[in-house]
Structure to design on (895 residues):
C-alpha cells in the first residue's frame, strides 16, 4: 500500500468483502456470447463468399443475421466483458462491495434476457431497421430498465465508497453510463404500431443525423470509453506499475468525451445532410486524433521498464496489441472522415475492415487480456496454460490481419472501380456485379481470417475452463479504513456555481451564441468572449490556490463530476441536431402556384419533396426494412459524376423527409436503390427476388422465395398509415379511408402485369408489396388504379411517371419523374 | 476543398463556433492539468490507486461465506 494511503494508527479498520460471484458470472457469459458472436461472423462472412450459405431459409438470410452478428459482438460479447471488468475494478478502486447484490444480479439476468430476445427477434425479421439500434421497442424498454439498474447500483456504490478520490477508470465508467442513456433514449424515440413494430419519430435527414449521432457514439461510449477505463485499471495491474502520466489521462478523458460526440456526421459525408453539419463532423473527427493517440501512448508507455514482460506474459501481449489496434483504428477513423477520403472509402469494404480492426483488435483482445488476467484470480489459481494463451494470441492476430488487410484491398479496389471513368468521361466499369466478382477472393480471405479468429477463441475457452477447474471460486476480503470519505465542505451546488464553473459555462454559451448570431451581433459576442477569457485569467491569477483546489473537489464529488461529463457530451449533440431539425422542418411539403412563381428557389426545393407512399408501397417498405435490405443497399446517391452516371440524379434532402426510418444505408454490397423505380419491369423484380442469379448470374444476394407465399394484411397497413399520420406524414383522412381499396387495386395492377407474362402472384403477397415499393423508389406516386395508358409511352428505363389517380393527393401526380418520391 | 466548403456553406458560423468551443474547452482542460494538478505527490497518489488495496485475503467462497456470517453476527 502506498505510504500516503496508509491508515492512521488510530484509524478503525473495516472488512470489505468483494462480490466476485457476479464477476465470475459475467466473465463466463462473456466467453459464451463471444463464441456465438464469432460464429455468426463466420456465417455472414461465408454468406458473402457463397450465397448458398443462406440455405434458402428466410431466418438465416444475410439481412437478418448480420444485425444479429453486430449486436451479439457489441452488446453480448463486449457488453458482458465490460460489465465483468467494471464490477471487478470498481469494487477495488472504491474499496467497497457493490452497493446491492440483488441489483447486480438483476443487471446480469436482465442483460442476458435482452440478448436472448434479440437473438430470437432478428431472425424473425423483427427490427427497427436502424444499424446497431435494430431492437424492437419492447426490448428497447428492457434495455433501458437494465441500464437504469446498472446505473443505480454503480452510483450507489460511488456514494458508499471508502476512497475519496475517483480514479481515472471510474470517470470513463461514469461517462459511459450517462452518455449511453442519453444516446439510447433519443435514438429510440418511436411510436409503436403494435407490440412488435414501431416507427421512429424522426424521419429522413433528421433520423439520419440522430441515428449516426447514436451509431458513432455507441462505438465511442460502448466500445471505446469502457475499454479505456478497463485499460487504465487492468493494464496497469498487469504491468505492475502506475499509469505513465496521470495528467495525460485527465486531458485524454475530457478531450475525448467532448470531441467524440460531435463526430457522428462523418458517416454522412456527401449525403443530403446539410454541408455545415458534414464539415463539423469532419473537423471534430480529425481533432479526435489528439486525445485518442494521447490515450494510446499513455497506455503503451505504462509498460516503460516492463517491456521484458512482453516476451513471457501473454496478458501483456494481448493488451499491447489491443492498444496498438486502438491507435490504428483511431488513426484510420479520422482519415476516413476527411471528405475526399470518404468519397473513396464510404460504402466500401474499407469501412468493414476499419470496424473489425477496432472490434477484433481493440475490443476482443482487450477482453481476452482481461479474462486471462482476471479469471485465475477469481479462482485463486494460476492460468492453466501460458503456452495455450500464447497460441491463442498468435492465431487470433493472424486471423485479424487476414481479415483487415483483405477488406482494405477489397474496399480500396471497390472505391476505385466505382469511380473509374473512361476518356470520354463515362463509366469505365458500368457493370456493378463485375466489381463484386473481383472482390470475391478478398471475401474468401476474410472468411479464412474469421475462421482462424473463431477457432482461436476455443483455446481461450479450454484454457479458462481448465483454470477454473484447477482452482476454486474465492472470495476476496480487504481491510480498509472504516472512515467514510469526509464529505467535502463544498456542496455540489457551491461547486457548480463557483468561479471556474461560471466562467466555463459563460464561454460555452458565448461560443454557441457566436455561431447563432448574425453578422452584426457576432463581433459583439466575440468581444464578450475575449473579455470573459481575460477576466478568467485575472481571476485565476488572483485565486490560484482556490482554482487548483476546485478540480480536486470536483474529482471527488461524483454528482458534480457526472453533471460536468453530461454537459460535455450534450453540447455537441445539441449544436448539430437542433439546427438540422429546425432546418428540415422548414422544407415546404406543398406550395401553391403563386408561391412557386414568387419564389423560384422555394419552387425548386419543393419539387424534390417526397410524397407519401401508397398503402401497398408502405407495406413493401416495411418488408424491405424487416429483411435488412439496407445492410447491402444504400438509398443515397452522392453528388459525384460517377454516381450520377450509375444511379441517376443525386439525392436531395427533401426526397426522404417522410421516411420513418431513413434508409440511406452505409454499405453497398449491392447497388444503390434510390432511383431503381422504373429501371426494370415487374417481371425482372419478381425473378430477381425469387433467385437473384436468374437476372444477375454473379450476384451473392439471398433468395426471397418466401415473399411469394407470405401475405400482407391491408388492415394492418391502414393502421400503420394512421401512425405515420401522427408522425407528420401528410396522409389525409381520405387516404386512410381508401387505404384497403387502393392497396387492392394497385396490387391488381402488378399481378395482372405479371399474369400477362405467365407469372401468377397473389395480390396480397409480400412479393407484390416489395415490387410496388421498389418501383416507387426515385419516382413520384405511382398509379393505384387502372388507367388508360398514355398514347406514346417512353422506354421503360427513362419513362416519366404517368399522371394518374394517385395513392395520396391529386397534386402529387404532377411530380416530375426525376423529382423526389 | 476549403474553397468548395466556403463557397457552399450557408451556415459557416456553426463549424467556426464549434472549433472555438472545442479550443476553449481544450485550453481549459490543459490549464487545469498543468496549473491545478501541480502537486506531484497528490498526482502520484491518484495514479497509484489501483495498487492501494493489496492486503487481500483470498479463500474459497464456501469458507468465506461461513466467516463473513460470523463477522456479520458479531
Amino acid at each position: 500500500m502506498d505510504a500516503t494511503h496508509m491508515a492512521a494508527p488510530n484509524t478503525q479498520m473495516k472488512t470489505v468483502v468483494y462480490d466476485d460471484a457476479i464477476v465470475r458470472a459475467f466473465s463466463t457469459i462473456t466467453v459464451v456470447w463471444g463464441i456465438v458472436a464469432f460464429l455468426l461472423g463466420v456465417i455472414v462472412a461465408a454468406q458473402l463468399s457463397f450465397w448458398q450459405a443462406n440455405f434458402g431459409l428466410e431466418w438465416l438470410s444475410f439481412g437478418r443475421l448480420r444485425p444479429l452478428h453486430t449486436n451479439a459482438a457489441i452488446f453480448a460479447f463486449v457488453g458482458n466483458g465490460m460489465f465483468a471488468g467494471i464490477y471487478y475494478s470498481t469494487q477495488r478502486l472504491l474499496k467497497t462491495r457493490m452497493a446491492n447484490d440483488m441489483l447486480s444480479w438483476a443487471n446480469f439476468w436482465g442483460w442476458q434476457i435482452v440478448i436472448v430476445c434479440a437473438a430470437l427477434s432478428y431472425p424473425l425479421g423483427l427490427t427497427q431497421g436502424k444499424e446497431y439500434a435494430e431492437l424492437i421497442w419492447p426490448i428497447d424498454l428492457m434495455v433501458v430498465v437494465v441500464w437504469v439498474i446498472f446505473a443505480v447500483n454503480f452510483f450507489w456504490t460511488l456514494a458508499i465508497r471508502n476512497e475519496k478520490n475517483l480514479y481515472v477508470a471510474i470517470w470513463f465508467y461514469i461517462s459511459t453510463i450517462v452518455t449511453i442513456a442519453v444516446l439510447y433514449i433519443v435514438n429510440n424515440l418511436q411510436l409503436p404500431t403494435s407490440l412488435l413494430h414501431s416507427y421512429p419519430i424522426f424521419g429522413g435527414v433528421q433520423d439520419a443525423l440522430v441515428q449516426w449521432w447514436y451509431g458513432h457514439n455507441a462505438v465511442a461510449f460502448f466500445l471505446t470509453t469502457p475499454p479505456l477505463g478497463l485499460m487504465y485499471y487492468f493494464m496497469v495491474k498487469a504491468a505492475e506499475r502506475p499509469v505513465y502520466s496521470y495528467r495525460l489521462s485527465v486531458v485524454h478523458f475530457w478531450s475525448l468525451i467532448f470531441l467524440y460526440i460531435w463526430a457522428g456526421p462523418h458517416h454522412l459525408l456527401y449525403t443530403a445532410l446539410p454541408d455545415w453539419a458534414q464539415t463539423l463532423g469532419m473537423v471534430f473527427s480529425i481533432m479526435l486524433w489528439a486525445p485518442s493517440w494521447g490515450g494510446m501512448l499513455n497506455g503503451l508507455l505504462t509498460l516503460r521498464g516492463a517491456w521484458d514482460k512482453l516476451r513471457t506474459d501473454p496478458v501483456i501481449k494481448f493488451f499491447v496489441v489491443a492498444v496498438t489496434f486502438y491507435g490504428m483504428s483511431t488513426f484510420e477513423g479520422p482519415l476516413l472522415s476527411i471528405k475526399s477520403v470518404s468519397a473513396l472509402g464510404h460504402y466500401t469494404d474499407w469501412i468493414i475492415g476499419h470496424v473489425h480492426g477496432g472490434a477484433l483488435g481493440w475490443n476482443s483482445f482487450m477482453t481476452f487480456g482481461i479474462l486471462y488476467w482476471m479469471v485465475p484470480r477469481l479462482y485463486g489459481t494460476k492460468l492453466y496454460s501460458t503456452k495455450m494463451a500464447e497460441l491463442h494470441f498468435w492465431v487470433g492476430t493472424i486471423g485479424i490481419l487476414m481479415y483487415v488487410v483483405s477488406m482494405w484491398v477489397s474496399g480500396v479496389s471497390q472505391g476505385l472501380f466505382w469511380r473509374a471513368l473512361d476518356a470520354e468521361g463515362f463509366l469505365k466499369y458500368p457493370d456493378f456485379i463485375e466489381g463484386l466478382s473481383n472482390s470475391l477472393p478478398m471475401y474468401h480471405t476474410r472468411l479464412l481470417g474469421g475462421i482462424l479468429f473463431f477457432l482461436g477463441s476455443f483455446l481461450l475457452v479450454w484454457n479458462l475452463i481448465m483454470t477454473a477447474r484447477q482452482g476454486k471460486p474465492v472470495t476476496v476480503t480487504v481491510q480498509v479504513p472504516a472512515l467514510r470519505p469526509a464529505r467535502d465542505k463544498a456542496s455540489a451546488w457551491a461547486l457548480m456555481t463557483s468561479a471556474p464553473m461560471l466562467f466555463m459555462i459563460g464561454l460555452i454559451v458565448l461560443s454557441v451564441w457566436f455561431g447563432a448570431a448574425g453578422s452584426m451581433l457576432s463581433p459583439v459576442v466575440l468581444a464578450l468572449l475575449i473579455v470573459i477569457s481575460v477576466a478568467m485569467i485575472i481571476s485565476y491569477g488572483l485565486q490560484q490556490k482556490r482554482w487548483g483546489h476546485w478540480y480536486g473537489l470536483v474529482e471527488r464529488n461524483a454528482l458534480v463530476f457526472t453533471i460536468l461529463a453530461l454537459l460535455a457530451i450534450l453540447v455537441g449533440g445539441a449544436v448539430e441536431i437542433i439546427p438540422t431539425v429546425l432546418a428540415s422542418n422548414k422544407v415546404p411539403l406543398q406550395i401553391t402556384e403563386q408561391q412557386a412563381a414568387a419564389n423560384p428557389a422555394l419552387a425548386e426545393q419543393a419539387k424534390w419533396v417526397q410524397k407519401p407512399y401508397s398503402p401497398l408501397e408502405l407495406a413493401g417498405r416495411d418488408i424491405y426494412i424487416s429483411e435488412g435490405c439496407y445492410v447491402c443497399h444504400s438509398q443515397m446517391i452522392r453528388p459525384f459524376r460517377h454516381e450520377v452516371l450509375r444511379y441517376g440524379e443525386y439525392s436531395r434532402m427533401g426526397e426522404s423527409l417522410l421516411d420513418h426510418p431513413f434508409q440511406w444505408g452505409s454499405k453497398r454490397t449491392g447497388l444503390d436503390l434510390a432511383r431503381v423505380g422504373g429501371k426494370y419491369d415487374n417481371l425482372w423484380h419478381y425473378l430477381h427476388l425469387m433467385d437473384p442469379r436468374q437476372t444477375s448470374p454473379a450476384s451473392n444476394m439471398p433468395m426471397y422465395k418466401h415473399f411469394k407465399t407470405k401475405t400482407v394484411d391491408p388492415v394492418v397497413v391502414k393502421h400503420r398509415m394512421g401512425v405515420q399520420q401522427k408522425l407528420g406524414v401528410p396522409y389525409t383522412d381520405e387516404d386512410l379511408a381508401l387505404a384497403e381499396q387502393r392497396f387492392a387495386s394497385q396490387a391488381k395492377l402488378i399481378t395482372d402485369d405479371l399474369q400477362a407474362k405467365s407469372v401468377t402472384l397473389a395480390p396480397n403477397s409480400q412479393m407484390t408489396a416489395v415490387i410496388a415499393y421498389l418501383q416507387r423508389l426515385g419516382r413520384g406516386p405511382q398509379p393505384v388504379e387502372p388507367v388508360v395508358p398514355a398514347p406514346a409511352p417512353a422506354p421503360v428505363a427513362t419513362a416519366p411517371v404517368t399522371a394518374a389517380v394517385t395513392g395520396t393527393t391529386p397534386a402529387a401526380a404532377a411530380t416530375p419523374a426525376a423529382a423526389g418520391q | 476543398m476549403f474553397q468548395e466548403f466556403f463557397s457552399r456553406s450557408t451556415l459557416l458560423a456553426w463549424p467556426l463556433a464549434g472549433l472555438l468551443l472545442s479550443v476553449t474547452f481544450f485550453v481549459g482542460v490543459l490549464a487545469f492539468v498543468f496549473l491545478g494538478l501541480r502537486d506531484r505527490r497528490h498526482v502520484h497518489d491518484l495514479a497509484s490507486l489501483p495498487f492501494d488495496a493489496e492486503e487481500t485475503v483470498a479463500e474459497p467462497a464456501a469458507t468465506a461465506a461461513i466467516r463473513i456470517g460470523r463477522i456479520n453476527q458479531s
About this structure: Chain B has one domain: 13-73.
